[in-house]
Amino acid sequence: MLQGSLCERLAPRETPDAAIAMTDAEGTVVGWTSTAQRLVGYPATEVVGQAVSTLLPLTRETLLDWASAEECRARGGWSGTATVRHRDGHSLKASLRFSLLWGRHGEIHWLISGTDIASLSPVATTGWVRDSLLTRTPIGVVVHDQDLHCAWTNDAMERQDGIPRGQRLGHRLSDVLPGTEAERLDKVMRRVLDSGVSTVHEYRVWPPSDPRHEHAIAASYFCLQDADGRAMGVCCTSVDVTLGRRAQERLAILSEASTRMGNSLDVMRIGQELADLAVPLLADYVNVDLAESVHFGEAPFARVGPLDDRRPVLRRAGLASIRPGVPESPWARGELVAVPRDSPFSKVLSSGRSHLEPVLDASPGTWFDRDPDRARTVRESGMHSLMVVPIRARQAFLGTAVFIRTEETAPFQEDDLLLAEGLVSRTALSLDNARRYARERSAALTLQRSLLPQRLVQGTAIETASRYLPADVDNGVGGDWFDAIPLPGARTALVVGDVVGHGINAAATMGRLRTAVQTLADLDLPPDELLTHLDDTVRRMAAEDADSQDPTRVTGATCLYAVYDPVTQRCTMARAGHPPPAVIDPHGNVTFPDLPTGTPLGVGVGVLFEAVEVDLPEGSRLALYTDGLIESREHDIEAGMRRLGAALAHPGRSLERLCSSVIEAVPTHPPGDDVALLVARTHALSPSRTACWELAADPAVVRCARTQVTRQLVRWGLERLAPSTQLIISELVTNAVRHAAGPIRLRLIRHQVLTCEVSDTSDTLPRLRHACPSDEGGRGLYIVAQLCRRHGARCLTNGGKTVWAEQDLDPGA
User: CA distances (Å), 120 to each of 84, 135, 221, 789, in order?
Assistant: First the structure.
């Protein structure tokens, strides 16, 4: 039964019970069990009193030889395989074990246990398992009489529970084993005697050879029958399963470590999880110190050798103790930790190998003399056993883990070090993943922030403020962006977009799209036309990545583009699958304009976008944002928009404070998706800052235009710009008269610069070219370009075009 119980721990549960028989020194059967009857078919009435050789090919001389063999005595018996004769005449191959028993007066008996090998599972019959069960496992045997007094025992029993043979023989177990456990065992044996049914029981003892540790004993109880088939006593076979229990506990700890340490990408949290897991299961006090570079995702300390000037900077990441407040640590979590020279810590750093010091030597003359803080802590807390394990991943040093015992009197052993190294290896894997993630996320954040505008445009027509909130550590960096782009004619373009996905690819794509928007804005395209060109750009980028197997490749984006004109106080906007903007009037009323949704960029072919004009009176505010501000797992978009509207309905707040109040209203911090917010306050351009004339398509109007412009510049105090402006107006109006039909419109705008605009009905945009010496024309735009800071042309929504040129108000600027 005991062998079956042991096999049960290592193999499937169908392992059969062992047959038990007892013989005297001459080989005569004196006791028989029901399990033996099931194995060979003989009842007790036919076997007891007969020679065991009737069943086994054994002789009396063989038994005597075994009894006198030193090896047999050392093992307490013999183990092997033999052929056994069944009652019905067939033979079976059995695994046998002979255990030598001693009586009160030194007489010997034999206990024979056997199991049919054919009935064992394949796992139990493999070489190492069978050898371990039959030859290496010390099995204790005790035979109790009907009064439960010990009649026979072997030497292995004393090694298990520490009770000497002379003290055990002739006594009940409850007489020699202290505690209530012996009384329970007596009851178990009494039930076996009364019922004749074998049973298994596990109990705990503290043997004198190892009183500080609890030992687990697994015992099997069989009813021995005499020649008449009556119960004559109880046989107990037992084995110490403490090591197996400890192995199971260690496996459970390692399994728990794999589960708990795989859910975080925070290096400080991972370090604390290791400390919390190891106390008190393995140590009374644990600290985890990580290389400073690990916290920032940088390359860790990789070389192994004398430290010298390459000593890494360590920061305490984990602390745990059985004592409240962790008094054993001179450093708190997050503080830098000193590494004394010639200490176990420096040796581990230089060698990369673990250090085990079962008995910690803190006497004078050791390395503690150079580290008085640690020496004082060691003496005050009673530290007596130490393990230092390096935390390494892919040949790179990440930190150290220190395990110390104070209250637990047993010193650390080699198996404790193996468990510690197993825990640390799992921690190192989690730390390496966290470090690599931190490095990628830091690079993506750096890239994203470098691609976002460092300073938004501020002018007479518009004021802006912004916020960017990165996503949480589980989702990483996204591709949100915003921008404010100055346009000619005192206008400003506001844009916000969101690239699908997260990570460095999304951030890089965001940078490419932001550059594309700026380029298209320089062409002064209307919002709907700009989005059409941007959609072509996204689809071209997707086609370039079509063969990529990268799951993080970008598949689309959303965008909102708006142009505000302070002269007309109107804002033209269009969107491509992006949330609508919020408009806050001067009284604090918040509305979301009903804009055509549009298709996200890059997901359709031949998509048309629609632009809508919205009136924005002086002092209005316009809020552009990404969906991370209004979407969450717990709330729908409508609830998010209501929350956003409530946060924006404060007309008296500054733009910066308004942005802060909006971000504070986000349900989770950090959010589950990136958040980009751009808020603008609009200003109207006073009529006194503009001048406009309608001109006929007649060459004679050029002179009149120069005269009108000069008078206006004098009124504005810009006489110094009159010569250059007259020449610019002459060239632009002349070109309009020559190449267009219908009325011509001339406008001057004075804001941060002086803008000259000439509009006509032609849709043909002029281009700058180099005229040959023999050409009579073609030099107009070239002359304009030499006189202004920048120039350009744009198509009008209702047809025609506007050609413009800008000059600095201060010619020396």
Answer: 16, 17, 21, 95
697 contacts 737 by C-beta, under 8 angstroms: yes
In this structure, are residues 385 and 359 in contact, taking their beta carbons and an 8 Å threshold? yes
Q: What is the dihedral of CA 364, 369, 371, 376, to 10 degrees?
A: 40
**Angle CA 769–773–779, to nearest 5:** 35
> Closest Cα to residue 487, out of 801, 693, 792, 808?
792
Say if residue 118 is exposed, middle or buried (CB neighbours under 10 Å; 0-12, 13-18, 19+).
exposed
Return the structure tokens found at 665.
Answer: 């209203």
The secondary structure of residue 403, as a DSSP letter, is: E
Q: Which two tokens stand for residue 602?
A: 């890059």
Phi, psi for 683 (deg, rounded to 5): -130, 140
Query: Tell me, what amino acid is at 82?
Result: A
Cα–Cα distances (Å) from 35 to 252, 286, 575, 766, in that order, read 35, 51, 85, 109
User: Helices 527-544 and 504-522 sit at what angle, rounded to 10 degrees?
Assistant: 140
What 3-state class would DSSP assign to 464? strand
pTM of the model: 0.56
Return the sign of the alpha-carbon dihedral for residues 22, 24, 26, 28.
Answer: negative
Dmax over CA atoms of the chain, in Å, equals: 145
Give 746's contacts (C-beta < 8 A, 6+ positions apart).
692, 693, 694, 695, 705, 708, 709, 729, 733, 756, 757, 758
Query: Positive or negative, the Cα torsion across 526, 529, 532, 534?
Result: negative
Residue type, 204: R
Q: What gap in Å lies between CA 674 and CA 669, rounded to an integer? A: 11
**Nearest 5°: phi and psi at 606?**
65, 35
Q: How far is CA 97 from CA 76, 126, 430, 660, in A?
A: 10, 17, 48, 81
Residues near 441 by beta carbon (within 8 Å), at least 6 away in sequence? 297, 473, 476, 477
Count CB atoms within 10 A of the CB of residue 633. Answer: 7
3-state secondary structure 636-670: CHHHHHHHHHHHHCCCCCCHHHHHHHHHHCCCCCC
Q: 768 with 785: CB under 8 angstroms? A: yes
* pLDDT profile of the chain (813 residues), mean per 10: 32 52 89 90 90 70 49 61 84 84 87 80 43 55 92 87 88 83 89 90 74 77 90 90 66 66 78 89 91 61 45 84 91 87 84 90 80 82 92 84 90 87 87 79 71 73 87 63 91 92 79 91 91 91 70 75 94 94 93 92 81 93 92 79 91 90 77 84 91 90 93 94 92 87 90 92 79 59 87 85 90 55
| 8-state DSSP, 133 | I
**HEC profile of 549-614:** CCCCCCCCEEEEEEEEECCCCEEEEEEECCCCCEEECCCCCEECCCCCCCCCECCCCCCCCCCEEE
Give the other-Cβ count within 10 Å of 432's Cβ: 19
What secondary structure letter does DSSP report for 461? S
